[in-house]
Amino acid sequence: MKKLIYIFLLAIVSIFMFSTCDKIDNPIKENAPFIWNKRKIIIYDFTGHQCIHCTKAHEMISQLKKQYKESAGDSAIIPIAIHCGSFANIRTGGEKFRYDFRTDVGDFLGGRGENLGYYGELAMPIGLVNNLSKNNLSTITAWPGETQKYISSIPYFFINISPNFSVDSIISCDVKIITNIENSRKLNLIVFLLEDNIIQNQQTEEFIAEYQHNNVLRAGFNGAFGEVIKSNSDRLIYLSEINKSVSLSAKDHDWKIDDCSIVAFVYDSDTQEILQAENCKVR
């Protein structure tokens, strides 16, 4: 009788163990409800077309964009793919990796070839979530948690972007920063140009000849760290505005303007925290 009881208990324990250990939950819950007060989150994705594991970061970003997306289609996540370092090197011989994704901004932030940039040696895939401090560099497994820190908070500002593309290939925009919460922060504004749907090579465990590169940094309108828009601690009252205009030339570039977008974001000059971001199509 004791033997029968022992066998019965062992069977119950075994069923419990198998039912609880046969699957590891995905840390990202697609379509899970979340509270969003229109604060948008910037993710810097340091990447390169010769980086074997960087597509994992692209997949993580896609999942985060889906998770934090309103039914109307507006996502809280704005990723910026910065091709830099030795993984962004081009090859002059053969057919692989001949396309040059590199930019002046990317070179400054992440380095060119063996020369290190502002953020030092980057073990890609790696990035920054809503804070530009070197101390905030994190691997992709930390990005969901980092995103959750900000996603439901009320933004200090809202941003409006009014873009224009002229007949002489000048991309310009007026950026309006509107105060939503009174504050005394010192502020910088960064404006970047991004492009989607670039079909080029990408190395993974296998070589992919026609990989779709999205969110690719093409140029900075006002430098790698932008420009100061408020240098003092004077108090900004509710609905007060700061306005800036920036422009750059698209001449002599192979950018497909219909696939290009403008990203503008404001960050605290002292803490490096990004307080609000916005994006829009060039046309």
Structural notes for this entry:
The model is unreliable at 1-26 (pLDDT under 50). This protein has helices at residues 2-21, 54-67, 104-110, 143-150, and strands spanning 41-47, 77-83, 126-129, 157-165, 170-179, 187-195, 198-203, 207-213, 216-220, 227-230, 241-249, 260-268, 274-281. The strands form 4 sheets. Strands 6, 9, 10, 12 and 13 form a 5-stranded antiparallel β-sheet that branches. It is α+β, with helices and mostly antiparallel strands. It contains 4 helices and 13 strands. The chain has a single domain (35-281), classed as Sandwich (Immunoglobulin-like).
Structural class computed from helices and strand pairing: alpha+beta
Straight-line distance between termini: 80 Å
CATH topology: the name is Immunoglobulin-like
Q: Which oligomeric state applies? A: single chain
**CATH level 4 superfamily:** Immunoglobulins
Give me a quick take on this structure.
The chain is an alpha+beta fold and 283 residues long. It has four helices and 13 strands. The longest helix is centred in the first third of the chain and has 20 residues, at 2-21.
